[in-house]
Write a structure and sequence with these properties.
Layout: E1 4-7, E2 12-15, E3 23-28, H1 39-57, E4 61-66, H2 73-81, H3 86-103, H4 119-131, E5 135-138, E6 141-144, H5 160-164, E7 181-186, E8 201-203, H6 205-217, E9 221-227, H7 231-246, E10 252-258, E11 261-263, E12 266-267, H8 278-284, H9 287-295, E13 303-305, H10 307-331, H11 344-365, H12 370-389, H13 397-416, H14 429-441, H15 443-446, H16 458-474, H17 478-490, E14 493-498, E15 501-506
Helix pairs in contact: 1-13, 2-3, 4-6, 4-7, 6-7, 9-10, 10-12, 10-13, 11-12, 11-13, 12-13, 14-16, 16-17
The protein binds one RNA strand of 75 nucleotides through helix 1, helix 5, helix 7, strand 12 and helix 10.
RNA sequence: GGGCAAGUGGCGAAGUGGUAACGCAGCGGACUGCAAAUCCGCGACGCACCGGUUCAAAUCCGGUCUUGCCCUCCA
């Protein structure tokens, strides 16, 4: 089954044909590190991480590069405000970035190049463009002459004249054409700067991505990604620089752009002030839930943020994770045995699971349709729940064996979305006291059911309470049973009675 | 002003020619001592609006309306 991807450059869905068979080279535009990232920044991280994970699942060897813009006006200004060295400020926020990205289960790139570590390469590109007569100097600035690059506009789909009409472009006397953009900026006093043939200065923003992607991936690499606000001018300029420099096209074969996160239909952005910091959101929502939310809509569509949507995502996600827990509780380390005589109903079940898995792949193969893929996972979950909870369910070795395989499939697909649940949350020490109190409060109703001494470890303590409750239920002492369950629920511990015993989980 | 998207049940969201996935919420039922979880069933007579093409359109074409994004730093 061929994998198809929508390419912003051709404006068509195309089959993904890597330059080197079975290898995919991806460059994703990374953050300018002067602040904590917000949910809108997190979307491309999760989207391209998911694309990467899925490609790896499909057997491609993926080389993934994501840059840090660690020198730029915003960094310089913020550093001035905080009375910090711009370099230290950028380093600090690179660290903060990794904390958030790691929390969101975004796998680290193979290379995380920084702009400031590639100044010589950038100067080399400017130099070549200058020598070719495509770039020109004015007062220590070096500009790229868009009129010298006939293909300018091919990514954003407009001509130079269209861009000019009614455009809000600064009229800068020093530029030959208003749309010319800066490759190298003359340094202002007190700013970080590097030596160049045109005097002290620093690189323009677009330059780094052209230079670093060419360096680490080579001309004609497979996928270049970023938010759709980067199409123009950032990516358009990257193409112009790189292709004028190398003299070969395409610079990148496929361009993928994600839609925005919005709030009340408006783009979430720092300048509008309607942004939600990932660090804050993680206090309230598990990383899986944020990921689920971000992947519940196709990557190219806008995605509206609201508490309501996140609550819905939480419920939806727990539906899937409940199925995983259900499987774990049944299998519990058992492997079962392969059996030649698989009962027909088990075989049919297995086929339905395989069919769901195929549907998942079909969805993801079609331009990474995660929303449709999730639907396939919900279908798969329903099959599993139904099979396992059926009143005729008997966990014979053959059935266990099948379920082990089913769980493997389910988890593998889940993992392509980065949605595997984290470690089951442990009961912290703070629960010890709380459980102790609950036990005390039950003393009157519980009578001799409650042992005098409870274990110290919170988990063991909880297990003891569950055993007590089980005994109470056997004796039809439902008042005690319900009271205990309600008390635990108040504290965020949910008890579920099943034919296989009582399980607990944290809300 | 120019360019580009999008408008699908209460909400979110798939679906680009053959008669509307999936999730949340709601209702009914099963299971349960009761819950929870889970399963089954119900729910758009219609996919912004108006025309057109076609045996057949949410899906193609034309027009209208609305919303968002880009044209300036922005994921």
């Amino acid at each position: 089954m061929a994998l198809k991807v929508y390419n912003t450059l051709s404006k068509k869905k195309e089959e993904l044909v890597p330059g080197v068979p079975q290898q995919v080279k991806i460059y994703a535009c990374g953050p300018t590190t002067y602040n904590f990232i917000h949910l809108g920044n997190a979307r491309p991280l999760v989207v391209f991480d998911t694309i990467r994970r899925y490609l790896e699942y499909k057997g491609y060897q993926v080389t993934y590069v994501q840059n840090f813009t660690d020198i730029d006006d915003k960094i310089i200004n913020k550093a001035k405000l905080e009375n910090m060295d711009p370099h230290d400020l950028a380093e600090k926020y690179i660290g903060e970035y990794f904390r958030d990205a790691d929390a969101l289960r975004v796998k680290r790139a193979d290379v995380h190049p920084r702009a400031t570590e590639h100044i010589p390469e950038m100067l080399e590109m400017v130099n070549v463009l200058y020598e070719k007569g495509i770039a020109y100097e004015a007062d220590g600035d070096v500009y790229f002459s868009v009129r010298k690059f006939p293909e300018y506009g091919k990514l954003s789909g407009r001509t130079l004249d269209e861009m000019l009409s009614g455009a809000r472009v600064d009229v800068d006397e020093r530029k030959d054409d208003p749309l010319d953009f800066v490759l190298w900026k003359a340094a202002k006093p007190g700013e970080p700067s590097w030596e160049s043939p045109w005097g002290q200065g620093r690189p323009g923003w677009h330059l780094e991505c052209s230079v670093m992607s060419l360096k680490y991936l080579g001309s004609g690499f497979d996928i270049h990604g970023g938010g759709s606000d980067l199409i123009f001018p950032h990516h358009e300029n990257e193409i112009a620089q790189a292709e004028a420099y190398t003299g070969s096209a395409p610079f990148a074969r496929c361009w993928i752009h994600n839609g925005f996160v919005t709030v009340d239909q408006e783009k979430m952005s720092k300048s509008l002030g309607n942004f939600f910091i990932v660090r804050e959101l993680l206090h309230e929502w598990a990383p899986e839930i944020l990921r689920f939310f971000l992947l519940s809509t196709h990557y190219s569509s806008p995605l509206d943020y609201s508490t309501k949507s996140l609550k819905s995502a939480r419920k939806s996600y727990s539906r899937l994770s409940n199925t995983l827990e259900l499987l774990d509780s049944i299998l519990d380390g058992e492997q079962g045995e392969a059996d030649r005589s698989i009962p027909s109903n088990v075989d049919a079940f297995r086929r339905r699971i395989d069919s769901c898995a195929a549907q998942y792949e079909e969805a993801m193969d079609d331009n990474f349709n995660t929303a449709l893929g999730l639907a396939a996972l919900f279908d798969m979950g329903r099959e599993i729940n139904g099979f396992v909870n059926d009143k005729d369910f008997v966990p014979t070795p053959a059935v266990i064996h099948t379920l082990v395989q089913v769980r493997k499939t389910f988890k593998e697909l889940f993992d392509t979305l980065g949605l595997l649940p984290g470690e089951k949350r442990q009961l912290g020490p703070e629960y010890g006291e709380m459980l102790q109190e609950i036990a005390l409060s039950l003393k009157d109703v519980a009578g001799d059911l409650l042992p005098d001494q409870l274990p110290h470890a919170p988990e063991e303590m909880l297990d003891t309470l569950i055993t007590v409750r089980q005994e109470a239920r056997v004796r039809k002492h439902f008042q005690l049973a319900d009271q205990l369950r309600n008390a635990l629920k108040e504290e965020g511990i949910i008890l579920e009675d099943t034919p296989r015993g009582t399980h607990w989980r944290l809300v």
